[in-house]
Amino acid sequence: MRLLHTSDWHLGRSFHRVNLLGAQSVFIDHLVDTVREHRVDAVLVAGDVYDRAVPPLPAVELFDRALHRLADLGVPTVMISGNHDSARRLGVGAGLIGRAGIHLRTDPEGCADPVVLADEHGDVAVYGLPYLEPALVKDTVGAAKAGHEAVLGAAMDRVRADLAGRPAGTRSVVLAHAFVTGGQASDSERDIAVGGVEAVPASVFAGVDYAALGHLHGCQTINERVRYSGSPLAYSFSEAAHRKSTWLVDLGPAGEITAERIDTPVPRPLARLRGRLDDLLDDPAHTAHEHSWIEAVLTDPIRPDDPMARLTARFPHTLSLAFDPEGREDDGGATYAQRLRGRTDQEIAEDFVAHVRGGAPDDAERAVLHDAFEDVRAAAGAEGQEARR
């Protein structure tokens, strides 16, 4: 059986204020074409269909069109809710939609109720485990405690129990939305949270032939049978080096797995540039990035004039600009009071200007600061004399 594994569509999301709905629509076109051209038997969507619980209307309309187009292909689709989705909203009408071959799995109580597909080699039980928020689903899945590993483990115990009662030779697939130990995160995932007890071991999926994961936005292989498809589009500059794709998975008659990556359309490449402004503007090595979305970090010791306007003259799609002046001194962990001790008001003000702007004030600016302090002192002196009268 041939499966197309995708996830993390995040319909309705923007990229640094750039509307991505057009690019997401192109991805849906690509998805439908891939299903048709590669003779896919089932589509697996492992959560985060939408970017937020109450998505904008254009995103809902795109999702509606996607469902109709997948249903028209006559290819079953199994879809779970992720941590960005509202499970209740996404699951509305699931019973009716299921009659069209689109199987929405958003209720934790149904995690051991598979969609049973079949090919010439027998049945394939496809279990959809929606994102499981430990505090909310602990009792539902029968977990001993409220933790990600505990609730996902309890849900998988129910899956294995159901599978054990099916005919011998029944193959199995699980969709889940979780952070699995060994996965590489990026900046655009909502923390569930990475790096702590929220991480679950890949062994939790033992006993099934393939685990189609969602949540992490980079396409990656945890092991032969446990994979992330990643998001079809980049949603942060931390994904600049990602190769966005879906997994085309062939499930053999005895549960053998072969997998191939199918690249998804790239609306515009990403580039992260770092250096002095003049160097970024003059270096011919950056010519390839002139039509990319740009994140630029300027290292000039003194903040240059009109940096964004100058950058966009060469890189018109610059979306993010930050400053990290080279040579900035380390304060050694001293407290604010320690750094001020023994310094004049003028010196403190000059230090503030240097910190905010990334360069010390010049002589003219020092004169302005000096005159300002003199005016304040004069005004304070006049008020004191008036008070003593």
Structural description of this entry:
The protein is an alpha/beta fold and 389 residues long. It has 3 domains: 2-263, Purple Acid Phosphatase, chain A, domain 2; 269-328, no CATH class; 336-389. 32% of the residues lie in helices and 22% in strands. It has helices spanning 21-37, 57-73, 87-90, 94-98, 134-141, 148-164, 277-282, 307-314, 336-340, 345-357, 363-388; strands at 2-6, 14-15, 18-19, 42-46, 77-80, 102-105, 115-119, 122-128, 171-177, 210-214, 220-223, 226-228, 245-251, 257-263, 270-275, 293-298, 318-323. The strands form 4 sheets. Strands 6-5-4-1-13-14 form a 6-stranded mixed beta sheet. Strands 7-8-9-10-12-11 form a 6-stranded mixed beta sheet, with no helix packed on it. Strands 15-16-17 form a 3-stranded parallel beta sheet. A hairpin with a 5-residue loop joins strand 13 (245-251) and strand 14 (257-263). Helix 1 packs parallel to helix 2 and helix 5 runs parallel beside helix 6. It is elongated. The chain starts with a strand and ends with a helix.
